[in-house]
Write a structure and sequence with these properties.
Shape: rod-shaped
Keywords: Coiled coil
Distance between the termini: 91 Å
Number of helices: 8
Number of strands: 0
Radius of gyration: 46 Å
């Protein structure tokens, strides 16, 4: 309501300014007409004075005037000062009008600057309100559309392969059983680790959003073939001051609308406790910056560690059995 009242005030001021401009044009036209009229009167009086004072009127005409008992020459001569006085008054009026017009012009310029600044403030306020409203809505940009397609087509398949199987009845020490389960998860993850669809052209891309890393509009940022490693992409974004959640130029004083969105790759690893160590501890990120698709070496290293732990636990269990028989 407040903004509507302000806009209504602006419309009223605009109408007043238009009325002032029309009045200004009318005064200018009147000024020109008055000056033209005054110029014609001056020319006429000069002509009359010249013809009467200098005796340029034909003698026959002068004789007719005198016979009629009228003193036209004397009357014309006495009329000239009156006309001049009136013309001087007219000039003063014109100067006063021009002064008022100059004051009105100055006031108009001041008002125009004020309302221009005011309109800019309203525009900025509306823009900020729009941004806050958009922040509450989910907006599909860049490769988010691809996220949806992947979620519909392959996420279910990948996630189902990562689901926890039904627990079996332990026939071995609990710690060893847990390590075996972890090893199974790691070996399965090493084979089924979700990979990026690297391509110069993304067939499903139907928008003109540029790739963050190479500015191409032919593929999504997550599919960029120029920079494939997640860690390298992360450094690229940070170096250019871009947002790690949406890859855009977010206002640092406001939270990004995608900050709470879970990365596709991290979401898959989060379903298994034994694989959560792969999730980067960076406070969240865009899927294009995730390093899980490049984490196979970490998985293999973790597999070797688990196997060593299993050997140690098995050795301790075997030693304990012999001691009991003694």
């Amino acid at each position: 309501m407040y903004v509507d009242n302000l806009v209504l005030t602006v419309d009223t001021v605009d109408e007043a300014i238009q009325y002032y401009q029309r009045s200004k044009q009318m005064f200018q036209d009147l000024n020109m007409n008055l000056r033209e009229f005054a110029s014609n009167d001056i020319s006429l009086m000069q002509c009359m004075k010249k013809r009467t004072d200098c005796g340029s009127v034909p003698a026959r005409k002068r004789k007719e005037w005198l016979e009629n008992g009228t003193e036209h020459d004397t009357y014309a001569t006495s009329l000239i000062p009156v006309v001049k006085e009136n013309l001087q008054k007219l000039d003063r009026y014109l100067v006063a009008i021009e002064g008022e017009l100059a004051k009105a012009e100055k006031s108009y310029q001041v008002e125009r600057i004020f309302w221009a600044d005011f309109a800019q403030v309203i525009k900025q306020t509306n823009s900020e309100e729009k941004e806050r409203e958009e922040a509450k809505m989910e907006v599909l940009t860049d490769d988010e559309y691809l996220d949806r397609l992947i979620d519909e087509t392959c996420e279910e398949e990948v996630a189902s392969s990562m689901e926890e199987p039904e627990p079996s009845v332990p026939s071995q020490p609990w710690e060893l059983q847990k390590l075996k389960k972890t090893l199974e998860d790691l070996e399965d993850a090493a084979v089924r680790l979700p990979q990026r669809r690297i391509a110069y052209v993304s067939p499903s891309k139907d928008c003109d959003v540029e790739c963050t890393f190479c500015n191409s509009i032919s593929h999504y940022s997550d599919s960029c073939p120029r920079i494939k490693d997640g860690d390298e992409r992360y450094r690229f974004v940070k170096k250019r001051g871009l947002c790690q959640y949406c890859l855009g130029s977010c206002n640092p004083y406001f939270a990004c609308s995608r900050e709470k969105n879970d990365c596709f790759y991290c979401g898959i690893m989060r379903k298994k406790e034994s694989l959560r160590f792969l999730i980067p501890k960076d406070g969240g990120h865009h899927r294009a910056l995730c390093n899980i698709p490049n984490a196979k070496n970490l998985i293999l290293e973790r597999i070797r560690e688990v196997k060593r732990e299993m050997e140690e636990v098995s050795g301790e269990a075997a030693g304990g059995s012999v001691a009991k028989r003694d």
